[in-house]
Design brief:
Layout (H helix, E strand, L loop, with lengths): L1 E4 L2 E6 L6 H9 L7 E4 L1 H17 L25 H11 L4 E4 L2 H16 L7 H12 L3 E2 L2 E3 L8 H11 L6 E4 L2 E4 H7 L11 H6 L3 H32 L8 H7 L2 H13 L8 H4 L1 E2 L10 E2 L9 H4 L1 H22 L8 E4 L4 E4 L7 H29 L23 H17 L21 H41 L4 H11 L12 H13 L1 H6 L7
Parallel strand pairs: 2-3
Antiparallel strand pairs: 1-2, 4-6, 5-7, 7-8, 9-10, 11-12
Helix pairs in contact: 1-4, 1-9, 3-6, 4-5, 4-9, 9-11, 9-14, 9-15, 9-17, 9-18, 11-14, 14-15, 15-16, 15-17, 16-17, 17-19
Length: 547
């Protein structure tokens, strides 16, 4: 749910309507400006009502996680006079995370998601706890949370405990504030904020839930959707460069297989190539002969039949990624508005009932995150395969070896760009091995099937950057190839498609054609910046919003 409050954009948390896009927006901000995040009135009222149920029940009932120990200590009752101290001790004993720290964006997303989970109304926390987390978030006081330590068992216990330790103002914790890391106690004092005293159940409510994994997943969905479009764009531009065979993208082929992602990718490729003169039969008959000193182009003796898999099967390869991404998005969209701690409080007609379960378990996210990691690696592999063929004169239909623009036999051209692209693809592939199949036993055997979801999220998040790197290198090379072809084809047969021309022009504003060997890292980083900022997608695709 979104609203406009006093001319400032506000994201209202009600536990039911938060979207992935809102999480990403509030995590990243725009130009250093973040929306205000607040609880809806209805959610606040339900949180208060459910907390009252906990306060009443704790007086005369033994309830797991509320007045008992956790995990293997589930049968140990905590006396009423020790409950507050137990909450503090629980948090501190769970603070075992390893550096480096999460990015501010991931931690901001984690804070939003934890409060929205409370807003569902089954957690039984106090309204004061929720308001404190949001107060820190809106002041951009962001806890320094170590990345590693979670098994995705009873949720992301260790990372969330580090968040909890900041809330109670523990002396050894730190926060990000005004672009520097500072001791929590100093920042709270500067802002006249008091450390929070956790109440019964709240320590477990904070830590139970795969919320760090979910924060990663929200960002991954957003980034992966952009990468799919960029991979389609790179493939379309590669087709322009080699004057590829368009029949493989005919909708009748893809309708015959009836796969949603495959058909959507083929449609987007056709749209990008609309109006291209290069993918016509006339252009395909031209033999570029860059090894010839003749000014005129020649006609090839052999007709074009079909392209290699990395071009011809783009709808199938990228389409499988699109389907995996849709699967992940669907799971994440539901998880964003889920109650994920334990135990949970439910309201009946005449009373409240407290039930213990396992909504914190990370397999819900771990398995689709592993799936997207594998699919991301396939995108990088396909990009490398296309780039390999593009720089090889035996496969590029007349383009010079290594896309060298001069006759210097000692020129390396784009040869090592492909080496580096393969390195990106190999790193992505190594990280794509599924994490969720690895498990172990913890807590005296009580928690005996862990999800390893945090590792699945971390790996997929790392792979995102390797895919960006691979696509940046392919786009750099493909623009070189397009320009080399244009010099032979002329304005008639060299016309690009409506989408590919926009992309070519946008890239050429940052990076010029390489006439002789030069320091290429600068060029690659310039294209990667266009990817990361979203500028390249905005230049090509309609309805592509700001990141």
């Amino acid at each position: 749910m979104e609203a406009r409050v006093q001319d400032k954009e506000t994201v209202l948390l009600d536990g039911h309507t938060l979207t992935i896009e809102q999480v990403v927006q509030a995590a990243h901000g725009r130009g250093g400006v973040y929306p205000i995040v607040a609880l809806s009135a209805e959610a606040a009222e339900k949180i208060v009502r459910m907390r009252e149920a906990i306060e009443k029940a704790v007086e005369d009932k033994v309830m797991y996680g509320i007045n008992t120990g956790a995990g293997v200590n589930r049968n140990r009752v905590v006396p009423a006079n020790l409950l507050h101290g137990y909450q503090r001790d629980y948090i501190l004993a769970h603070c075992v995370g390893d550096a480096p720290y999460l990015s501010k964006e991931i931690t901001r997303a984690m804070m939003i998601l934890r409060v929205n989970s409370f807003a569902v109304g089954h957690s039984g926390v106090t309204i004061e706890l929720c308001e404190l987390i949001l107060d820190l978030l809106n002041r951009d006081v962001i806890p320094a949370v170590p990345q590693f330590g979670s098994l995705g068992a009873s949720g992301d216990l260790a990372p969330l405990a580090h968040l909890g330790a900041v809330l109670i103002g523990h002396a050894e914790t730190h926060v990000w504030y005004r672009d520097e890391m500072r001791p929590t106690k100093d920042v709270l004092q500067e802002l006249s904020m008091e450390p929070y005293r956790l109440k019964a159940k709240e320590a477990m409510a904070i830590t139970n839930g795969s919320t760090m994994t979910l924060a990663y997943a929200c960002i991954i969905v957003s980034e992966a959707e952009q990468l799919l479009r960029l991979a389609n764009l790179a493939a379309a531009m590669n087709m322009e460069a080699i004057r590829g065979e368009k029949n493989a993208f005919d909708d009748r082929i893809h309708e015959a297989r009836n796969q949603i992602g495959q058909r959507a990718v083929a449609e987007e490729i056709r749209e990008l190539l609309q109006g291209s003169a290069r993918i016509t039969a006339k252009a395909q008959k031209v033999c570029l002969r860059h090894d010839s000193h003749k000014d005129c182009v020649e006609e090839c003796e052999q007709a074009r039949v079909q392209d290699a898999y990395s071009i011809r099967c783009v709808p199938q390869i990228h389409g499988a990624f699109a389907d995996a991404l849709a699967y992940l998005r669907d799971i994440v969209a539901r998880e964003v508005n889920a109650a994920t701690d334990n135990p949970l409080v439910f309201e009946t007609a005449s009373e409240f009932e407290i039930l213990s379960g396992g909504n914190f378990h990370g397999d819900t996210l771990a398995i689709p995150l592993d799936t997207i990691a594998i699919s991301l690696a396939k995108l990088a592999n396909a990009a490398n395969a296309r780039l390999f063929r593009l720089i090889n004169k035996h496969f590029s239909y007349g383009l010079p070896q290594d896309l060298s623009a001069n006759d210097n036999s000692q020129s390396s051209g784009f040869m090592i760009v492909q080496y580096a692209c393969l390195a990106d693809a190999l790193r992505a592939s190594m990280l794509a091995a599924p994490a969720s199949v690895f498990t172990g036993v913890t807590s005296g055997g009580q928690e005996d099937v862990v999800s390893n979801g945090a590792s699945a999220a971390w790996k997929a998040f790392q792979i995102i950057d390797f895919v960006r790197n691979a696509l940046a290198k392919e786009l750099l090379a493909v623009c070189q190839a397009i320009d080399l072809g244009a010099e032979k084809l002329g304005s008639d047969l060299g016309q690009l498609g409506v989408g590919t021309e926009k992309a070519h022009k946008r890239i050429r504003r940052e990076v010029s054609m390489m006439r002789k060997d030069r320091y290429l890292r600068t060029d690659i980083q310039a294209i990667k910046a266009l990817i990361v900022s979203g500028d390249l997608c905005r230049a090509v695709f309609r309805n592509h919003g700001d990141k």
